């Protein structure tokens, strides 16, 4: 359970996450109004990434004794995911706040990409 043994758990969720980001850039590149198929593929694989990642976290947390800092990092990651879903859903509908929502979508992604692996390493005591 310790250290680098954590990494194989995240190969599948990580691959789905990379796909989500790739579809996000593709969707963004084609611009608005969004391509309906790409929008839904992006949204659904994002959901799949969250589900697969959560399953792994539940498994790790069962046998870990997380510090307050690890819990704070995890909470930050959860907040980012919520931010991604809310901003993503609003972006297609809200003309007025489009720029703000897109900024939230980008910032939440960057913070998530830092906070989530950091949580994994803290919980695993590695790398
Ligand atoms: C783990 C969750 C998600 C990740 C990592 C993610 C990532 C990304 C990335 C990297 C982009 C391209 C950003 C850019 O060019 O500025 C993007 C764009 C977009 N995403 Fe997501 N996304 C997620 C969830 C969602 C969800 C759930 C929705 C919709 C309900 C959504 C809707 C959109 C839209 C509409 C765009 C196009 C933005 C634009 O107009 O440039 N995203 N996403």
In short:
The chain is an all-alpha fold. It is 77% helix and 0% strand. It has one domain (3-124).
Question: How many strand units?
Answer: 0
Major sheet description:
none
Overall form: elongated
Helix content: over 70%
Number of spatially distinct domains = 1
Terminal Cα span: 12 Å
How large is the radius of gyration? 16 Å
Q: How are helices and strands ordered from N to C?
A: HHHH
Bound molecules: protoporphyrin IX containing FE
Low-confidence stretches: none
Strand content: under 5%
**Which structural category fits the helices and strands?**
mainly alpha
Number of helices: 4
Mean pLDDT: 92
Ordered list of secondary-structure elements with their pairings:
Elements: H1 11-30, H2 36-62, H3 68-91, H4 98-124
Bound molecules: protoporphyrin IX containing FE (HEM).
């Amino acid at each position: 359970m310790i250290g680098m043994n954590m990494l194989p758990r995240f190969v599948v969720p990580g691959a789905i996450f990379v796909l989500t980001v790739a579809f996000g850039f593709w969707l963004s590149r084609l611009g608005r109004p969004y391509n309906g198929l790409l929008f839904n593929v992006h949204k659904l694989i994002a959901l799949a990434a969250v589900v697969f990642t959560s399953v792994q976290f539940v498994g790790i947390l069962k046998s870990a004794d997380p510090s307050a800092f690890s819990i704070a990092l995890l909470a930050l990651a959860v907040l980012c995911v919520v931010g991604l879903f809310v901003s993503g859903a609003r972006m297609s509908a809200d003309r007025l706040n489009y720029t703000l929502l897109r900024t939230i979508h980008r910032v939440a992604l960057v913070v998530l990409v830092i906070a989530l692996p950091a949580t994994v390493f803290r919980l695993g005591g590695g790398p």
